[in-house]
Amino acid sequence: MQGQKIEMQERPRWVFWLVLLGLLAAVIFSIAGGILLGSADLNVSTVIDVIKLKLFGIENEELKRSAISIVWELRLPRVLLALAAGGGLAVAGAAMQSVTQNVMADPYILGASSGASAAVAFAFVVGGSLATSTTVISAFAFGGSMLSLLLVYSVGMIGNTGSGNRLVLAGMAVSVILTAATQFFISIAPDTYTVRNITSWTMGSLTSARWNNIAIPFIGSVVGSCFFMFMSRAYNLLSQGDETATSLGVDVRRVKRTTIIVVSFVTGVVVAAGGVIGFIGFIVPHIIRILVGADHRRVFPLSFIGGSLFLLWMDVLARTIMAPKELAVGIFTAFCGGPFFVWLLYRKNKYGRM
């Protein structure tokens, strides 16, 4: 597997604004779609009545209690979690690809998701009542994600030549080990309830999204993404190589360490809320670079919006394609990720670039 540096490509400014406005319009449409679509049929007027009731206290006597519960307690928190989690994972993937100078890098491939999943499985098995706390689960997920990334980074980035290739290979190896650890915890789980909980984490699902448990992943994803956007200039220079970045005043070692911590935090809180949802950090940044170029001042904000849209619609598919039965959202992101990877290889073979 050949590592490919991210080449800086310029696009006209109007292309960025056109894509930005198009994605923002798509977000508004998608939020409405995410609330309307599901196993229970709702119409637009019902959704509007619920929002008017909750935000402005304007009550419609014909509004059913079940509709209020579906819109406000179930679907709206789920839509908000999908937007934040998808955006955070996409921006984290773009940042990892920059610091490793390898277009194959993302939190999933580099073992962050597997580390978080294994830590959460461990928490369910040994934590007992503590495992019901969102804060405890988030802490375990963050710790597992960070330890995994630190291990991968320490192994894969030794030396200079081919370090990006070794990082991806190290990530794959660590992911296999941590996946085995997760399976081990499943096999020793004390009851079927614990097994079901761990399995749901490993497959990815936004079913548990509620107002009382989306604050941490929502704020964590937004804050982490804002950090990367603030550091856009440093990531632009890192994409040109460590020596170039250092000569232009970037503390490369500090930026890479900080990136590992922030990526671990974003991945950890997302896994804690929705389980392992792979390939978003791999797919979305590539699409955004194809559209607007590789300037991270454009890539990061557009990746956040694009990742939000991608996960939101994958979740809509997960809960509607076999309604009333619901599938794991991680299945659909993987279905998209595999063919996209093949397409990138085709582009590489035909055009000499990804």
What are the main properties of this structure?
354 residues, mainly alpha
Give the SSE string. HHHHHHHHHHHHHH
Strand content: under 5%
- Total DSSP helices: 14
Major β-sheet annotation: none
Unreliable runs: none
> What is Rg?
21 Å
Shape: globular
First-to-last CA distance:
13 Å
Structural class: mainly alpha
Total strand segments: 0
**Helical content (DSSP H or I, runs of 4+):** over 70%
**Kindly state the mean pLDDT as a whole number?**
83
Written description of the protein model:
The structure is a single chain. The chain has 354 residues and is an all-alpha fold. It has 14 helices and no strands. The protein has helices at 13-36, 44-56, 65-100, 112-127, 134-156, 163-187, 192-203, 215-230, 232-238, 242-247, 252-274, 280-292, 296-320, 329-351. Helix 3 (65-100) crosses helix 12 (280-292) and helix 4 packs antiparallel against helix 7 (192-203). It starts with 12 loop residues before the first helix and ends with a helix. The model has no long low-confidence stretch (mean pLDDT 83).
Give the SSE map.
Layout lengths: L12 H24 L7 H13 L8 H36 L11 H16 L6 H23 L6 H25 L4 H12 L11 H16 L1 H7 L3 H6 L4 H23 L5 H13 L3 H25 L8 H23 L3
Helix pairs in contact: 1-3, 1-13, 2-3, 3-8, 3-11, 3-12, 3-13, 4-5, 4-6, 4-7, 4-11, 5-6, 5-11, 8-11, 12-13, 13-14
Summary, kept brief:
With 354 residues, the protein is mostly helical.
